[in-house]
Each structure stands twice: as C-alpha cells, then as structure tokens.
Specification:
It contains 24 helices and four strands. The protein is an all-alpha fold and 585 residues long.
C-alpha cells in the first residue's frame, strides 16, 4: 500500500523564524502608531482645537445676536464688502503679475531671466509690511516720488494702496506655482498648432490659456484668501478702509471683546475655508494640461518683436520691487529718507540695543520651531503617502489648517483655547499658554503657532516628492529587517532632501516674518521683531522700522545658507544603501 504525502506549502517563514517576524511586525506597527499619535496630537493642539474654540465661542447663545447686528449694520456690511473687494482685486492683479513673470521665464527668448526670477522671490523673505512702509515713504502724501518728484498730493492710504502692496507682496506664491505648471506643459501640443499654421496669439488664446485655466484659478484662490486674512498691511496702510481682519484685531486688542472677535473670525473663516476646499477641485482638473514626465517636443521660444513689450512690463514690475526694497535698505542708513538723507547708524544702534531682546527672542523661537515643523511635515507626508489610506486625507486636511485658517483667526483661537489652559472634563491637561497666567512668557504659545503655520509648507513639498519616489526602494530596506522609521530616516529622507531644504527654509522665513497670529500672543516678557516693526511704522519711526526689516532679511538669508550647508552635508545618494546596511548589522 502506497502512502501519499502532500508536501507542505512554502509560506516563506520557517517555524523558528515566525515568532521573530511577528515581533518585528508588531514593532513596525508600534512605531507607525506612535508617529500617528504625535502627528494627530499636534494638529489637534495646534490648529483643530483653536479653530473649534473660535467656532464654539462665535456660535454660542451670547454671540448669535451679533450676527443680526452685523447684517443690519451698514458699517459692518461695508467692512464685509471691503474685504471681498480687496480679495478679488489682489487675487486678479497678483495672478496676472505671477503669470507675466512665469510667461517671461518659460516662453520668451530674452536675457537676464535669472535676475528677474530672483527679484520676484524677494518678497518671500521679507516682513509682510516692509513694502507698505516703503510705499508710504515713496508714494504717500509727502512721498519722495509723488510729492517731491511729481508734485502730487496723493493719498496712498486705502484700497488702492492695499491692492498695490498686497499684489506685490503675495504674487510670488502664485508665480512659483504657475512657473512649474508652464514648464510641465507638453510642447507637442503647441508644435501641432504651429504646424497647422496658428499664430503665436492664436496658440496663446486657444491652446495655452485653456490648458492653464485650472492652474490660474488655484493661485487666484490662494491670493484671495491671503489678502482677506492679512492683518499687518491694513493696520499700516488701511486708513479708513476697514476689513474684517483688522476689525477682529481691534475687537481683541482694543476692546477685549472675545465674542465679537469670534464673530468676525467666523465671518472671515467661511470664505477662507470654502475657497481652500475648492482648490483640490480646480487642481484635479489639471489633467487638461497634458503634463507628462517625458515631453515629446521642445519649447519654441518667442523671438519676434512681441517679446519686448511683455519683457518690458515684467521689468517695470521688477524695478518697482527693487525700488521698494532699496528704500527699505537705504532708509535704514539715513536719518529720514527723502527729507534728511544724512548717513547715520543710529537706527541700527537702536535695533541692537533697545531692540536686541526682540532679535534674540524671535531668532531663538524661530530656530526652535523650524526643525520641529520640518520634521513634523516630513513625517506627516510619509504617513499620508506611504501608510495611511482614507485616514491620510483627514491628516492632510488637519495639517493644512495652519495655512487655510487665517492667521488672525488662529491667533484669536489661541486666546480662546489656551488663556485658561486645556481641560479634558474637569482635568487640566495643559496649563495656560496665553493671557495673564502665561507660562514661559508666551514662548510656548508662540512656538506652537510658528510650527502650526510652518508645517503646511513642508507637508506639501514632501508629499509631492514622496509621490515621485518608487516604493520598491523602501520595500528593499524593510525586507532586510529595518523598522519603518529607520527606513524613513536612512533611505527616504536622503532621497527627498531638496524637499527638506525647501520645507526648512520656508518654515524659518514664515516664522521670522509672521505677524497676524503672533501679534495677539506677544507678552512683555517675549518680544517679536515683526511686532516691533509694526509699532515703529505705526508711530512714524520709519528709519527704525527699515533697520529692523534690513536686519530681519539678513538673518533670514544667513539661516538659509546655514540650512543649505547642514542639509547638504547629508550622505550622498550612492552611499545610502551602504549606510543603511551598516545600521542593520
């Protein structure tokens, strides 16, 4: 009798190795869970809970009658109309300037493109109201250009001044996005139109604009939200032109009317969050732009005479930017720019003596917050792209609340949420961070606000980079027994090093130039540069304001170089596998 023996199925795991494998799997799951807890804990404390605090206060029984007062008050309705008009004008003009610069970079055969690109990025590393202060000096009632050169008594305060300043300050955000979109367009589409006999104008009108239409809407929405949420420029340059952000700030800082401020915040929050939610819809329509990794043609740059008026318009905007920031730098070295141009270092002496505490505090807090924001942004992007399914969309939305929620609203949310501490039922789990019983002079609240506002930049750049990294590279590491966090640290992170550099640079610049959220959290024990600049500009001490701006820009550029030096010192790509292998052994 013959006995049939069925061979055992090869599971890939021997009985002796199954237990260690299960333990490694559990360790991997634990590390991911710990990372999830940290990330969700941060977004809960940094953005979700303060936003909920604003909503709960603004929708309370005591606050509800204020909405009726708002919609029945002509003055309040005018403030709402002013805010919407400002956002629409800045969105349209800023997007037009951004498209102009992107078109010059990608479609014109002209010299000095790199110079134009650098000039367009200058507003990113400067305080939000540096342009406003310089604009008053150059184009105000006693301005160097309007009054001294042209003999005009022009009133720059109000809507026209705000649109001018905000458009020049915010257009770089749209420019960078449009530049990438226009470079990603498949040139074969334009070549086909040229072969069929279409002129340059017809190609622009019937090919490029329709393909870029969704991409143009996205920066418009972003600039609209940034404009209606801006606080510093309306305080410096608004005059009688009131907007919701400044009214909410006055309600807190002038009247300490937190319910009223919450009402203004909710009214401001509705269009901001609504347009933010609309952005993915418009961005998802970019499939019409025929983006491909390997373009099947080459871009035919414009060589005809048409390029020169377009090029001249871009340089006109660039020269205005240079004149404004040149005024900032020159004004720091003279007694009163345009009135008494005697060279002096008194403004810098003031900054480095009486303002030294603000310099030290701001730089220290920004240096603490920047690596935290960079690390959180990278880890959150890694979890969203690699380890989370539908839960990843929730984490991504919560992480982006730091920039979707207007800074003034977030600052008011911090006041409402943390002036008495954070309670879970009757138990206080977090002491007061702002208000009369503030710990550490408000430094913890400021760092938390810095991190919350800086994480979205690193999160977005890291998400884009991780989407381009092949999963098999990380799978090879984990198959050798590496934990997920080890794989992320020694394999994934070096591969997305440019995104880390961009995230850290963006985070530090945002920390150093932040004002809308921070101005409500500053205490006498903790001084911030942007608050000092706002105070100096508001009191007419423009030389001191210019000196602060100049020093701040110098600090930001110096730290940019330091970040590039540190991040650039990571192991080269070809040594990553060797390094990872040694860590495993």
């Amino acid at each position: 009798m013959t006995t049939l023996v069925t061979p055992a199925r090869n599971t890939g795991v021997t009985p002796s190795a199954s237990a260690p494998t299960r333990r490694r799997t559990r360790r991997r799951e634990i590390s991911i869970r710990v990372a999830l807890i940290i990330c969700f804990g941060f977004v809960l404390v940094g953005s979700v809970y303060p936003t909920v605090a604003v909503l709960s206060t603004g929708l309370s029984a005591d606050a509800l009658p204020r909405y009726l007062d708002f919609i029945t008050s002509p003055l309040q309705l005018r403030t709402l109309r002013n805010t919407i008009v400002l956002g629409l004008l800045v969105g349209a003009i800023g997007t037009a300037i951004a498209f102009l610069f992107a078109f010059v970079q990608t479609r014109l055969a002209v010299p000095l493109k790199r110079v134009l690109h650098v000039i367009a990025l200058i507003p990113i590393v400067s305080p939000p109201f540096a342009v406003a202060t310089a604009t008053i000096v150059l184009y105000g009632r006693s301005g160097v250009i309007t009054h001294d050169l042209l003999g005009l008594e022009y009133d720059i305060y109000g809507l026209d001044g705000l649109v001018f300043v905000l458009s020049l300050s915010l257009f770089p955000v749209g420019y960078l996005g449009l530049l990438g979109m226009m470079r990603a367009l498949d040139p074969a589409v334009e070549e086909s139109a040229m072969i069929l006999g279409a002129s340059r104008w017809q190609i622009f009108r019937t090919v490029q604009l329709p393909l870029l239409a969704p991409g143009l809407v996205a920066p418009f929405l972003l600039l609209f939200v940034e404009a209606i949420a801006d606080l510093a420029n309306p305080l410096v340059l608004g005059g009688d032109y009131s907007v919701l952000a400044s009214q909410a700030y006055i309600a807190v800082n002038g009247n300490y009317d937190l319910p009223g401020a919450a009402v203004y915040s909710i009214i401001l929050l509705v269009p901001a969050l609504g347009l933010y939610v609309m952005q993915p819809y418009w961005l998802s329509r970019k499939v019409r732009t025929t983006v491909s990794g390997k373009p099947s043609g080459s871009v035919h740059l414009i060589h005809s005479w048409v390029r020169w008026p377009i090029y001249g318009a871009a340089w006109l905007v660039a020269l205005v930017i240079v004149s404004l920031y040149g005024t900032v730098v020159c004004g720091a070295f003279v007694r009163l720019f345009g009135v008494n141009n005697t060279l002096t270092l008194d403004h810098f002496r003031y900054v480095f003596t009486r303002g030294r505490e603000a310099l030290v505090d701001t730089t220290t807090l920004a240096l603490i917050a920047t690596p935290i924001a960079g690390a959180l942004g990278m880890v959150m992007a890694w979890l969203i792209v690699r380890h989370l399914g539908r839960l990843g969309a929730a984490l991504d939305f919560a992480g982006m609340l730091g920039i979707a929620v207007p800074g003034t609203v977030l600052g008011i949310g911090y006041l409402l949420a943390y002036r008495l501490g954070l309670y879970v039922g009757p138990v206080q789990v977090m002491p007061a961070l702002v208000g009369g019983s503030t710990i550490a002079g408000g430094a913890i609240a400021i760092i938390l606000a810095y991190v919350t506002r800086s994480v979205p930049g690193g999160l977005r750049t890291a998400t884009a980079s991780l989407s381009q990294v092949d999963r098999t590279i990380e799978e090879a590491s984990t198959s050798l027994g590496a934990k997920p966090l080890q794989t992320f640290r020694w394999v994934t992170l070096p591969l997305i090093r440019p995104s880390l550099l961009a995230g850290l640079s963006y985070g530090f610049a945002r920390c150093m130039t932040s004002i809308s959220t921070i101005v409500l959290l500053v205490t006498p024990q903790t001084r911030i540069i942007t608050a000092q600049i706002l105070s100096a500009a508001d009191s007419g001490r423009y030389g001191i304001a210019f000196a602060y701006c100049t020093v701040l820009i110098a600090i930001v550029l110096a730290v940019f170089g330091l970040i590039r030096l540190v991040v650039g010192g990571a192991p080269p790509l070809q040594r990553i596998a060797e390094t990872t292998g040694r860590r495993k052994s």
